[in-house]
């Protein structure tokens, strides 16, 4: 009997230990999910608006380590950062993680944009967009973009003594997108679209509570109005194509004209609308932010300003009769683009983004449950002194040879197979705009405060008011 009792006393704790191990959950990242729906959303948004978001995240890193869990905009998420994290986000196949934005973004932009699509759907739609946005196709639109920039300066800059840069850059980039990508010329329709897109962007990173007077509610209403207008526009473009219009006149007609071997339209009307919304939002905000921060930078760094001006003046002198810029001219703007790249490194327009876990996975020694989000950020990696020495120093020579940079460390346009299809369009837009701004005007900052907030894009103090003067080519 004593022997049996002794054996039982030994086996019972072993059984309990094994049972406990079997039933205990796997090791999820440290941290707190916080309150349902809200979680850490308000804390992150407050930090972004006070330009302390990177420090807010660094505090989490110091407290929990490089991987931590939180709840953002209604969904449980895991925050990761660094080169390995960026590679995991941008290079993983759809068997582990897929595109999926938080509810506020997906509800406003639509569930058929490439930020939401996965697998073959993502490839199909992305390939269609690249058909129009690849360099070989965009070459023919440099002249038209040139005309848009000149018209903008004539309307909004010439004859003025003072302007506020950011809203004007948003007007410029929106007009370029409307003209080149969607064939919407100046007038009431373009003005309505511009107004709706401003409201849409305000609510894209917000707590998804659909109550009257909330940002989210206003953005949803603006999205519905914009989609209705775009649907009418697509119908008009379809009629134009049937009458023999060129399928290359803008992005919408290009997408409508792409057909498979069965002569079926490859991209659905809903996919066209949702991806037009995405491209318009992306181009409207990201390029305007880059141009604004470039102008502020030129005012603060006279040596860099002088080098860019010299490069642009040399191109302008070859056009004594005011000829339009060409693709070959853009190829000579090498230093200007290095300055733009360094600006994107220090002031990335996109703070971060999300992916969705499609099955239980392990990352960095932790278990991440199915349907959780992966939250990644750009700025922490791009300001890492082990990757970019003296990261707070503005140094365009870092991009003397971009191929020498470690992969997945500089990601303003994403990376790997998920690099932004609009990258080349943004480059052309930036270079053409800077050429005319810097050769035709000089400016002086009217606000000495060099800080900025995020809402969710960077916004310099007071929108960057400047005093301007016309400049003659020497």
From TrEMBL:
<keyword id="KW-0503">Monooxygenase</keyword>
<dbReference type="GO" id="GO:0016125">
    <property type="term" value="P:sterol metabolic process"/>
</dbReference>
<feature type="binding site" description="axial binding residue">
    <location>
        <position position="420"/>
    </location>
    <ligand>
        <name>heme</name>
    </ligand>
</feature>
<keyword id="KW-0349">Heme</keyword>
<dbReference type="InterPro" id="IPR001128">
    <property type="entry name" value="Cyt_P450"/>
</dbReference>
<dbReference type="InterPro" id="IPR002401">
    <property type="entry name" value="Cyt_P450_E_grp-I"/>
</dbReference>
<keyword id="KW-0472">Membrane</keyword>
<comment type="similarity">
    <text>Belongs to the cytochrome P450 family.</text>
</comment>
<feature type="signal peptide">
    <location>
        <begin position="1"/>
        <end position="19"/>
    </location>
</feature>
<keyword id="KW-0479">Metal-binding</keyword>
<dbReference type="GO" id="GO:0016705">
    <property type="term" value="F:oxidoreductase activity, acting on paired donors, with incorporation or reduction of molecular oxygen"/>
</dbReference>
<dbReference type="InterPro" id="IPR017972">
    <property type="entry name" value="Cyt_P450_CS"/>
</dbReference>
<keyword id="KW-0560">Oxidoreductase</keyword>
<keyword id="KW-1133">Transmembrane helix</keyword>
<dbReference type="GO" id="GO:0016020">
    <property type="term" value="C:membrane"/>
</dbReference>
<protein>
    <recommendedName>
        <fullName>Cytochrome P450</fullName>
    </recommendedName>
</protein>
<keyword id="KW-0408">Iron</keyword>
<dbReference type="GO" id="GO:0004497">
    <property type="term" value="F:monooxygenase activity"/>
</dbReference>
<dbReference type="Pfam" id="PF00067">
    <property type="entry name" value="p450"/>
</dbReference>
<keyword id="KW-0732">Signal</keyword>
<dbReference type="InterPro" id="IPR036396">
    <property type="entry name" value="Cyt_P450_sf"/>
</dbReference>
<keyword id="KW-0812">Transmembrane</keyword>
<dbReference type="GO" id="GO:0020037">
    <property type="term" value="F:heme binding"/>
</dbReference>
<dbReference type="GO" id="GO:0005506">
    <property type="term" value="F:iron ion binding"/>
</dbReference>
């Amino acid at each position: 009997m004593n022997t049996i009792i002794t054996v039982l006393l030994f086996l019972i704790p072993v059984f309990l230990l094994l049972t406990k191990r079997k039933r205990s959950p796997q090791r999820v990242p440290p941290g707190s999910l916080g309150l349902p729906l809200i979680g850490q959303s308000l804390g992150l948004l407050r930090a972004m608006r006070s330009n302390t978001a990177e420090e807010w995240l660094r505090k989490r890193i110091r407290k929990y380590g490089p991987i931590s869990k939180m709840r953002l905009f209604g969904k449980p998420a895991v925050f990761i950062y660094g080169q390995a994290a960026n590679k995991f986000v941008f290079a993983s196949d759809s068997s582990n993680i897929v595109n999926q934005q938080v509810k506020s973004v997906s509800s406003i932009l639509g569930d058929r944009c490439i930020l939401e699509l996965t697998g073959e759907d993502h490839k199909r739609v992305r390939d269609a967009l690249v058909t129009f946005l690849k360099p070989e196709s965009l070459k023919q639109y440099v002249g038209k973009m040139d005309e848009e920039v000149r018209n903008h300066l004539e309307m909004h800059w010439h004859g003025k003594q003072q302007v506020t840069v950011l809203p004007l850059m948003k007007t410029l980039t929106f007009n370029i997108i409307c003209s080149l990508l969607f064939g919407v010329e100046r007038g009431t329709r373009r003005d309505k679209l511009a107004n709706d897109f401003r409201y849409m962007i305000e609510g894209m990173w917000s707590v998804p509570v659909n109550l009257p007077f909330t940002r989210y509610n206003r953005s949803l209403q603006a999205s519905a109005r914009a989609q209705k207008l775009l649907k009418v526009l697509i119908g008009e473009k379809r009629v134009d194509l049937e009458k023999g219009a060129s399928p290359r006149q803008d992005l919408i007609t290009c997408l409508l004209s792409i057909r498979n071997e069965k002569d079926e339209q490859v991209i659905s009307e809903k996919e066209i609308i949702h991806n037009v919304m995405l491209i318009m939002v992306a181009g409207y905000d990201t390029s305007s932010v880059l141009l604004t921060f470039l102008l502020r930078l030129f005012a603060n760094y006279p040596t860099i300003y002088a080098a860019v001006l010299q490069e642009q003046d040399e191109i302008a002198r070859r056009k004594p009769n005011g000829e339009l810029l060409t693709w070959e001219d853009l190829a000579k703007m090498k230093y200007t683009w290095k300055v733009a790249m360094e600006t994107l490194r220090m002031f990335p327009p996109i703070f971060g983004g999300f992916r969705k876990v499609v099955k239980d996975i392990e990352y960095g020694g932790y278990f991440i449950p199915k349907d959780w989000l992966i939250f990644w950020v750009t700025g922490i990696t791009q300001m890492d002194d082990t990757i970019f020495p003296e990261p707070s120093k503005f140094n365009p020579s870092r991009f003397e040879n971009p191929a020498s940079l470690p992969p997945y460390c500089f990601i303003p346009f994403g990376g790997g197979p998920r690099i932004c299809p609009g990258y080349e369009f943004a480059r052309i837009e930036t270079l053409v705009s800077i050429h005319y701004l810097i050769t035709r005007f000089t400016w002086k900052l009217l606000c000495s405060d060099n800080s900025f907030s995020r809402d969710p894009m960077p916004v310099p103090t007071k929108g960057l008011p400047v005093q301007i003067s016309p400049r003659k080519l020497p």
